[in-house]
Amino acid sequence: MSLTRVVNNEDHSRKKAVSMFSKFLNLDQEKQDRIINAAIKKFAQKGYDNASTNEIVKEAGISKGLLFHYFGNKKNMYLFLFDHFYEIIVDEFYKKINLEERDIFKRVRQAVTVKMELLNKYPDLFNFLSAAVMEDSKEVKLELDKRKKQLSKTNIGKLYEDIDLSLFRDDLDVQKALKIIFWTFEQFSEELIQRAKQSPTHEFNYDEAIQETEEYYEVLMKAFYK
């Protein structure tokens, strides 16, 4: 899918979301983020059917009446969150990652930075989306399946497309090397999440994370590049 088409799809989705959820989107950003983080945390932990709106409003510090005032019902809120975050990720991905850069480590460096920024703001973001992809609740499955079919055309797997394989050592199985690179930084991201959750401020130490990231790049580049 071209970047132009992605942007057009995002614009259409945003206009639709603004129309349906204008009361919520007109809230100040701090309150929006508080409600969003409470909701995605419960949905990620318990799944759609078992996530309680009572628990969500308690965590968010709002009344149940306000939650339904903003979203209408639990299903609308869940699907809004899925659409909202996928748009954010695609937007950040295309805006901040240079896909013309064919060195996989330079691309990954950009992707890790984007992911750290998003997780600092929404700690349960990727857990929520991972759970949503596997969600089998009858109440939302049909709508999610339609969305996943469309969104698969713009998935973040593009990070690994059209990279310069000539940079890798000739004696390597490059596909296995790419998997190792992917697994390394996925696990490193999970470690960063756990550190942030255990810290008093729940924020990433960016300087420390960037330094460690560079150390991983150095090790992997020495192992895999010519």
From TrEMBL:
It comes from the Bacteria. Residues 52-71 bind DNA. Gene3D superfamilies: Homeodomain-like, Tetracycline Repressor, domain 2. Residues 29-89 form the HTH tetR-type domain. Pfam families: TetR_C_5-like (PF21256), TetR_N (PF00440). InterPro entries: DNA-bd_HTH_TetR-type_CS, Homeodomain-like_sf, HTH-type_Tx_Regulator, HTH_TetR, Tet_transcr_reg_TetR-rel_C_sf, TM_1030-like_C. Keywords: DNA-binding, Repressor. This is TetR/AcrR family transcriptional regulator. It comes from Bacillus xiapuensis.
